[in-house]
Amino acid sequence: MPQDRTLPVPRPEPAPPRHALRGGAISFRADPFLSDPAEALEHWPDALLVIENGHIASIGPYSPEAAAGLPVTHHPEALLCPGFVDTHVHYPQTGMIGAYGEQLLAWLERYTFPAELEFADPEHAARVARLFLRELLAAGTTTAAVFCTVHAASVEAFFAESARLNTRMIAGKVLMDRNAPPGLLDGPGHGIPESEALLLRWHGRGRQLYAVTPRFAPTSTPAQLQAAGRLWRAHPGSYMQTHIAENTAEVDWVRELFPEASDYLDVYHRAGLTGPRALFGHGIHLSEGALCRCHQTGSALAHCPTSNLFLGSGLFRVFAAKRADRPVRVGLGSDLGAGTSFSALRTMGEAYKVAQLNGDGLSALHAFYLATLGGAEALALENRIGRLAPGYEADIVVLDPQATPLLRFRTARCRDLAEKLFVLMTLGDERVVRATYVAGSRILTGTAQAGPS
Ligand SMILES: Nc1nc2[nH]cnc2c(=O)[nH]1
Ligand SMILES: [Zn+2]
Questions:
Q1: Which of 267, 419, 422 has its CA nearest to residue 351?
Q2: Residue 447: is its pLDDT beyond 60?
Q3: Which of 18, 82, 76, 68 is nearest to 47 (CA)?
Q4: Best of 89, 148, 184, 215 to mutate for ligand 1, by most ligand atoms within 8 A of CB?
Q5: What secondary structure letter does DSSP report for 436?
C-alpha cells in the first residue's frame, strides 16, 4: 500500500509542570446504579482544576485567589469531564468499519480476518495505530482496552504510538490457534511465548498495560486457553481480554466445541481466565448463573451497543448486569470495527436506545458514569483514572454543549444539568470535544500538520 502522507500526526502540546483549567466540571464519586444518582455526581458550575506533573492537584470552585500565579486555560461555557474509557475495541479494524450485511461469524470470515491479515506489515500497523489513536483522542477517549492482531508487530506499533502520546492504554496480541485463516494462526507453541515477551516488554512501561488476549473460545484450542490462563496468572496486575456470548450461533458453536463446560463463561473459568482484570466483550446471552459468577470472580463486561445493533447480535441488559445484590463491573465499548463510532457520546446514546428496547431507563448520569468511572472500575483503574479528584491522572475531555448551531439552540432550552448531558449523548459526537488532555497535556490532533512532506 502506498505511504499516505496526508494522515495527521497527533502530538502532546508541551505544558508547564503546574497549570490549571477553568470551566464547568463533572465527575462521579459513586456508582449511580447502586446509589442515588444525584448524590453520585459531583458538579462544579465554574471549577478551577489544578494540574501538577500530569496529575490533578486540586479541584474546587474558581476564585481569582485560587488561580493566583497559575497559567489558567479558560474553557468558558464548556464542561470538563474525566477522559472517556473504552473497555473494548479493535484498532486493526479501523479500515473496515461499516462492512455491510452480515452477523458475527460470517462478518469475521468475510471482512475482519482479511483486514487483520494486512497487519503482517509493520508499516501498515504503525499507520493504522496512529490514525486510530488520533481518532480516539479527538473523540475524547483517553484510555481503551485494545485488541491488536496475532502479529507481534501490531502490538509493538500500537504501544509505540501510545507511549509517544503518553496515553494510558491496555492492549495485547490476539491468540488464535484454530478456526481462522492460516496467516492469522499462531505457530504451534508460539502464541504464548510471543505474548509473554510482549508483556515483559510493555506491561507497566510508562502508562502502557498488557492484556493476554485469546480472541474467543472458538479460535483457541483448549490447550491454548489453558496456557493463556497460566500466563495471565503468572503476571499479577496484567489483564485478560476476550469475547463472550455475543451471538446465538457463536454460543451454539461454543457448546459443541466445549461439551464438558456448563456454559460459555465456564469455558474461560476452567482455563483460569476469570477474575479481577478479566474483561469480557458483550455478554449479551449470559444466564443469571453466569452473571453471578462474573460478580463472584470480579470479572468485567464491556457493553458495546453500536456493535450489537450493527451486527444484529442482541440487546445487552445493563440493569440486569448491575443488579444491586450482585453487581457486575460494566464499562462501555465502541467495539470498532463492528461498532460504528469512536465517539463515547454516540455509544452512550445507543446504550440508551438499547435500554429502551429492554424496557429500562438509562439516564444521562448512568451513561456518563459507564463512560468514565464505571469504565475505570471495569479496568480496575478506578484509583488512577475516571474521576476529577486530587491524585488522579489528568486525563480530561472538554465538552462544548454549544458546539453546533443545533446544539446551541437545543441546550439553551435545557432546564438542568442532567437534561443537558442527555442532549449531549443524543446529538453529540466528536464535534462536541473542544480539547482532550492526556496526563495534563493537551493533544493537538494534528490536522494542521497534514499535507505533503
Ligand atoms: N465484535 C466482534 N466479536 C468478535 N468475536 C470474536 N472476534 C470478534 C471481533 O473481532 N469482533
Ligand atoms: Zn470485539
A1: 422
A2: yes
A3: 76
A4: 215
A5: E
**Residue 294 burial (CB < 10 Å; 0-12/13-18/19+)?**
buried
User: Using one digit for the tens of pLDDT, what is the confidence trace for 161-176?
Assistant: 999 999 999 999 999 9
Find out whether 430 and 343 touch, Cβ atoms under 8 Å: yes
The atom of ligand 1 lying closest to the CA of 335 is 1
CA of 333 to the centre of ligand 2 (A): 9
CB half-sphere exposure, 106, CA atoms < 13 A: 8
Q: CA 436, CA 344: separation in Å to the nearest integer?
A: 13
d(CA 397, CA 120): 34
Q: CATH for 11-82+387-449, among 2.60.120.280, 1.10.10.10, 2.30.40.10, 3.40.190.10?
A: 2.30.40.10
Q: Which atom of ligand 1 is nearest to the CA of 216?
A: 6
> How does pLDDT run across 97-125, given as a tens digit for each residue?
999 999 999 999 999 999 999 999 999 99
* pLDDT of amino acid 6: 74
The cell numbers describing 83, all together, are: 477522559
Q: Give the SS3 label for residue 279.
A: strand
Domain parsing of the chain, residue ranges: 11-82+387-449, 84-378
Tell me which H or E stretch contains 127.
Answer: helix 122-138
Nearest-5° Cα angle at 161, 159 to 162: 60
Q: What's the CA gap between 400 and 423, in Å, rounded?
A: 12
Q: What's the DSSP call for residue 111?
A: I
Q: Rounded to 10 degrees, what is the CA torsion of 319, 322, 328, 334? A: 50
Return the residue whose CA atom lies nearest to atom 11 of ligand 1.
338
CA 72 / ligand 2 centre spacing (Å): 40
Output the pTM of the full model: 0.97
DSSP, res 371: I
The answer to whether 27 and 42 have CB atoms below 8 angstroms apart is yes
What kind of architecture, by CATH, is found in domain 84-378? Alpha-Beta Barrel (3.20)
Ligand 1 pocket, mutate which of 102, 104, 248, 284 (most atoms under 8 A from CB)? 104
Percent of the chain with pLDDT over 70: 98
Q: Which residues line ligand 1 (CB under 6 A)?
A: 90, 104, 108, 112, 215-216, 243, 246, 307, 335, 338
Q: Looking at the CA of 116, which ligand is closest?
A: 1
Q: What is the DSSP string of 143-183?
A: EEEEE--SSHHHHHHHHHHHHHHT-EEEEEPEE--SSS-GG
Q: Which atom of ligand 1 is nearest to the CA of 93?
A: 10
Q: Which among 98, 130, 129 is positioned nearest to 112, based on CA atoms? A: 98
